[in-house]
């Protein structure tokens, strides 16, 4: 009685294993077995469709490309949400990190960040801050056209007490 029961359990296990392997071949194991968050995935190209809130990141190697579903786009890319697909898109050539195609957060080594743009040199009226690679205004507290209100050394101060009703 035990032999037929063991045989039946062995056959059931083999059928489950075959079905699991068959499903793995359909889903695929692109990107070293990483199809996490994918709706459609293949061994050759990885993910081609992601779950609703994830971004599709296409990594290119030579002529091959692999898709991967991510919560956030990697450095050098920014996320674009669409009706059908959310995609990771590459930042501009001078940007190391960006918020959108037109707004950089951090620039590549030879460039300075100024108002979301990466420039080879800082514009007039700004100074290059070497540590942050940003252009900073020369006098951030001083408004344009406003003269310095501090007394100059060559100007004498009138220290006489003022009388009420009289103006100097």
Automatic annotation (TrEMBL):
CDD domains: FU. Residues 133-168 are annotated as: Disordered. It comes from the Eukaryota. SUPFAM superfamilies: Growth factor receptor domain. Residues 35-135 form the R-spondin Fu-CRD domain. Transmembrane segments: none annotated. SMART domains: FU (SM00261). Residues 1-19 form the signal peptide. Residues 141-154 have a biased composition (Basic residues). Keywords: Disulfide bond, Glycoprotein, Heparin-binding, Secreted, Sensory transduction, Signal, Wnt signaling pathway. GO terms for cellular component: extracellular region. Belongs to the R-spondin family. This is R-spondin 4. It comes from Pongo abelii. The lineage of its organism: Eukaryota, Metazoa, Chordata, Craniata, Vertebrata. The gene is RSPO4.
